[in-house]
Amino acid sequence: MTSPWWRGAAIYQIYPRSFADGSGDGVGDIAGIRSRLPYLRDLGVDALWISPWYRSPMADGGYDIADYRDIDPLFGSLADAEAMIAEAHGHGIRVLVDLVPNHCSDQHPWFKAAVAAGPGSAERERFHFRPGRGERGELPPNDWQSTFGGPAWTRVGDGEWYLHLFAPAQPDWNWERPEVRAEFESILRFWLDRGVDGFRIDVADLLVKAAGLPDRASMPPGATPPHWDQPGVHDIYRSWRRIIDTYDGERAFVGEIWVTDPRRFAAYLRPDELHTAFNFAFLQSPWDAGRLRAVIDRTLAEHAPVGAPATWVLSNHDVTRHVTRYGRADTSYAEDGHRVFGVDTDLALGTRRARAAALLTMALPGCVYVYQGDELGLWEVEDIPAALRQDPTFVQSGGTDLGRDGCRVPLPWTGDEPPFGFGPGGSWLPQPEAWKSHTAAAQTGDPTSMLELYRTALRLRRADSALGDGALTWLPAPDGVLAFTRGPGFTYVGNLSPAPVPLPAYEEVLLASGDLDGDSLLPPDTAVWLRTAAKGGQ
Questions:
Q1: 98 φ, ψ (degrees, to nearest 5)
Q2: Strand partners, 521
Q3: Is 222 helix (H, G, I), strand (E, B) or coil?
Q4: What is the distance between the alpha carbons of residues 204 and 254, in angstroms, rounded to a whole number?
């Protein structure tokens, strides 16, 4: 039997503001996405994940949603979205949309009504309003901190405080309220009825809070934080799974889950909950063969008890691009994601490692995610002037954290100077002049380019039944080398060591991330896909 598509898909993330601009206002939009669907088809991806396109004040790049059932005019209209979904399907591409259930915008009608209704009202029960501490209620209700920096509480005019685990413009929903649950079940149906193939669930482990909202300082050492990974969240996803399973076409969920305990992580992927979840441990791992193998083994072991496929991702809209990370002395990515100024980066080294890492992710069992621009070899843009930065992380940290704007710079498509074909009206963040050689047009047809590497790898991955969903068998390898087989006849070898290593016996080189040293040696920071004998080259 053929596995469901979501068990081995290649999924491309679109951050709409930065993908392509069709209206000429300098901001990416649905018209831009529609114009580039042939590019995505030719790239060889199976599905798109579209970051929030809903009506929003854009206090956090669209993750502050004022209306979950409408498209922000910055991006187009609901009719435009429906047309884009249909056109993507016409190209054989499925569409997942971002869902943000932990918080909304402070301009959402329900939150505005809650502020107006006053303390003790039913409207305020939909959120987490509390009186403050101190003699006059001048202190926050507890010691929780915002992910973006500072207290996780903001005071309103009548003296009560509301909870926001992110920016003050993003109040957290109270998932203990049945009307909140019913509202989101209705939102799911709204988009499923319009043909979306599934949802990426933002901060999926944060929805439910511990009863009484206790201080973190009051928790015993090692206890689960009171705002994170609470047992009640699983009831929500079981109800959502019942809904999505009533629709045809193998619709699916993928969760953004930062849970590190293997058993607790796997609980989200039980057959009656989410289909898949992002693998952040892999993204955070340094460029080290031993560390990567440990993460791969742990990931596959975590997923095995519940029969869920693993996912592999190198970058997204929240993290420093991996071309930059892999060119630094410290190639890992810290969980807190703190970005600092002045870190030396060797972009040539980072690019070489990024090419090898791409072949690794696409050879591993399960799904692979490609963040827009990965296929162009783009790096983190770190010299954006402070006055142009828009990420609330930069503002709330007082500028000590650069924020996420550097991985959200609009894509370069064509031409010799900015905005490189992004759109006729410039781009909302400045693009580096050096991206001239990294446009999609400049790379098309160049067999040595990152774009053609991705196109070839995705084509081979789709054509070879050994890749995607399935099993992996490790091969003996020297220190600093990863080597495994995927079914009979396919072997991956990646050399992360500082010296060339001999290749196993093979019949054909299917694809290499860089030039080989003759026919038998694999240079450092290089990976290769081999067609080997039916026994897997052993």
A1: -75, 140
A2: 502, 517
A3: coil
A4: 9
Query: Per-residue pLDDT tens for 440-499?
Result: 999 999 999 999 999 999 999 999 999 999 999 999 999 999 999 998 899 999 999 999
Give the model's confidence band at 538: pLDDT under 50 very low, under 70 low, under 90 confident, else very high. very low
CA angle 102, 104, 106 (to 5 degrees): 140
Dist. CA 425–CA 58, nearest whole Å: 20
Query: Any alpha helices (H) in 253-383, and if so which ranges?
Result: 262-267, 280-284, 289-303, 322-325, 347-363
pTM: 0.95
Could you tell me the CA-to-CA distances from 217 to 223, 229, 321 in Å, in that order? 11, 17, 34
Which residues are known to be catalytic?
202, 256
What are the b/e assignments for 237-263, b being 16+ CB within 10 Å?
bebbbeebeebeebbbbbbbbbbeeee
Interatomic CA distance for residues 165 and 177, integer angstroms: 18
Backbone angles phi, psi at 358, to 5 degrees: -60, -45
Place of tokens 């071309």: 323
Count CA atoms within 13 Å of residue 252 on its CB side: 23
